[in-house]
Design goal:
ten-stranded antiparallel beta sheet, Membrane-binding protein, mainly beta, Histone H3 K4-specific methyltransferase SET7/9 N-terminal domain, MORN_2
Length: 131
Protein backbone atom coordinates (compact mmCIF):
# COMPACT_ATOMS: atom_id res chain seq x y z
CA UNK A 1 0.00 0.00 0.00
CA UNK A 2 2.80 2.42 0.95
CA UNK A 3 4.75 1.59 -2.21
CA UNK A 4 1.65 2.26 -4.36
CA UNK A 5 1.21 5.68 -2.75
CA UNK A 6 4.90 6.43 -3.26
CA UNK A 7 4.79 5.44 -6.93
CA UNK A 8 1.62 7.49 -7.44
CA UNK A 9 3.26 10.48 -5.75
CA UNK A 10 6.33 10.24 -7.99
CA UNK A 11 4.12 10.04 -11.10
CA UNK A 12 2.11 13.11 -10.03
CA UNK A 13 5.28 15.14 -9.37
CA UNK A 14 6.74 14.08 -12.74
CA UNK A 15 3.57 15.07 -14.60
CA UNK A 16 3.36 18.43 -12.82
CA UNK A 17 6.97 19.29 -13.63
CA UNK A 18 6.60 18.31 -17.29
CA UNK A 19 3.53 20.54 -17.69
CA UNK A 20 5.24 23.59 -16.20
CA UNK A 21 8.50 23.19 -18.11
CA UNK A 22 8.40 25.10 -21.39
CA UNK A 23 10.91 24.97 -24.17
CA UNK A 24 13.15 27.88 -25.05
CA UNK A 25 12.47 29.14 -28.58
CA UNK A 26 15.59 30.71 -30.14
CA UNK A 27 15.03 33.57 -32.60
CA UNK A 28 17.12 35.42 -35.18
CA UNK A 29 17.12 39.22 -35.71
CA UNK A 30 13.82 38.93 -37.64
CA UNK A 31 12.22 36.89 -34.82
CA UNK A 32 12.25 33.71 -36.92
CA UNK A 33 13.10 30.42 -35.21
CA UNK A 34 16.75 29.43 -35.45
CA UNK A 35 19.41 27.50 -33.57
CA UNK A 36 20.77 28.69 -30.24
CA UNK A 37 24.15 29.50 -31.79
CA UNK A 38 22.62 31.79 -34.44
CA UNK A 39 20.04 33.36 -32.12
CA UNK A 40 19.85 37.03 -31.17
CA UNK A 41 16.73 36.70 -28.99
CA UNK A 42 14.70 34.00 -27.28
CA UNK A 43 11.30 33.43 -25.69
CA UNK A 44 9.93 30.75 -23.43
CA UNK A 45 7.26 28.54 -25.01
CA UNK A 46 5.16 29.01 -28.13
CA UNK A 47 2.28 30.90 -26.56
CA UNK A 48 -0.05 32.73 -29.00
CA UNK A 49 -2.45 34.27 -26.47
CA UNK A 50 -1.73 36.66 -23.63
CA UNK A 51 1.54 38.37 -22.82
CA UNK A 52 4.65 37.12 -24.58
CA UNK A 53 8.07 38.34 -23.50
CA UNK A 54 11.11 38.18 -25.76
CA UNK A 55 14.62 38.36 -24.31
CA UNK A 56 18.10 39.29 -25.47
CA UNK A 57 20.59 36.45 -25.09
CA UNK A 58 21.96 38.33 -22.04
CA UNK A 59 18.54 37.65 -20.41
CA UNK A 60 17.38 41.29 -20.36
CA UNK A 61 13.91 41.98 -21.79
CA UNK A 62 13.81 42.84 -25.49
CA UNK A 63 10.07 43.06 -26.09
CA UNK A 64 6.77 42.62 -24.22
CA UNK A 65 3.72 42.04 -26.39
CA UNK A 66 0.14 40.90 -26.06
CA UNK A 67 -1.43 38.40 -28.43
CA UNK A 68 -5.06 37.48 -29.03
CA UNK A 69 -5.63 34.46 -31.30
CA UNK A 70 -2.05 34.72 -32.58
CA UNK A 71 -2.29 38.42 -33.53
CA UNK A 72 -0.66 41.35 -31.79
CA UNK A 73 -3.37 43.07 -29.78
CA UNK A 74 -2.68 45.37 -26.86
CA UNK A 75 0.31 47.01 -25.21
CA UNK A 76 3.67 46.80 -26.98
CA UNK A 77 7.00 47.71 -25.39
CA UNK A 78 10.48 47.26 -26.77
CA UNK A 79 13.69 47.83 -24.82
CA UNK A 80 17.37 48.44 -25.46
CA UNK A 81 19.66 45.74 -24.09
CA UNK A 82 20.48 48.21 -21.30
CA UNK A 83 16.87 47.93 -20.12
CA UNK A 84 15.87 51.45 -21.21
CA UNK A 85 12.58 51.78 -23.09
CA UNK A 86 12.99 51.98 -26.89
CA UNK A 87 9.39 51.87 -28.21
CA UNK A 88 6.02 52.25 -26.51
CA UNK A 89 2.74 51.69 -28.35
CA UNK A 90 -0.14 49.32 -28.88
CA UNK A 91 -1.61 47.04 -31.48
CA UNK A 92 -5.21 46.42 -32.39
CA UNK A 93 -6.05 43.26 -34.32
CA UNK A 94 -2.49 42.91 -35.63
CA UNK A 95 -1.99 46.56 -36.69
CA UNK A 96 -0.33 49.49 -34.93
CA UNK A 97 -2.99 51.71 -33.41
CA UNK A 98 -3.08 54.76 -31.15
CA UNK A 99 -0.20 56.76 -29.70
CA UNK A 100 3.35 55.55 -30.26
CA UNK A 101 6.64 56.88 -28.93
CA UNK A 102 10.22 55.92 -29.62
CA UNK A 103 13.15 56.81 -27.39
CA UNK A 104 16.89 57.30 -27.67
CA UNK A 105 19.14 55.12 -25.51
CA UNK A 106 19.50 58.06 -23.09
CA UNK A 107 15.73 57.96 -22.43
CA UNK A 108 14.82 61.14 -24.34
CA UNK A 109 11.94 61.02 -26.81
CA UNK A 110 13.01 60.36 -30.40
CA UNK A 111 9.58 60.49 -32.08
CA UNK A 112 5.91 60.46 -31.25
CA UNK A 113 2.70 60.23 -33.24
CA UNK A 114 -0.42 58.20 -33.91
CA UNK A 115 -1.29 55.13 -35.93
CA UNK A 116 -4.70 54.11 -37.20
CA UNK A 117 -5.08 50.62 -38.68
CA UNK A 118 -1.31 50.34 -39.12
CA UNK A 119 -0.90 53.67 -40.94
CA UNK A 120 0.70 56.84 -39.57
CA UNK A 121 -1.91 59.59 -39.18
CA UNK A 122 -1.80 63.23 -38.15
CA UNK A 123 1.31 65.11 -37.17
CA UNK A 124 4.39 63.19 -36.14
CA UNK A 125 7.06 64.91 -34.10
CA UNK A 126 10.74 64.04 -34.24
CA UNK A 127 13.30 65.20 -31.69
CA UNK A 128 17.05 65.65 -31.68
CA UNK A 129 19.02 63.55 -29.25
CA UNK A 130 20.16 66.59 -27.28
CA UNK A 131 16.77 68.38 -26.90
Amino acid sequence: MKSSALVLGVIVIFLMSSFTKQETVWLDKNLKETSQTKAVYYKIGKKSNGIVTFYYKNKSTFRETFFVDGKLDGKFNEYYDSGNLKVDGKYKNGAKDGNWKSYYKNGKIKSKGRYKDGEKVGIWKFFYKND
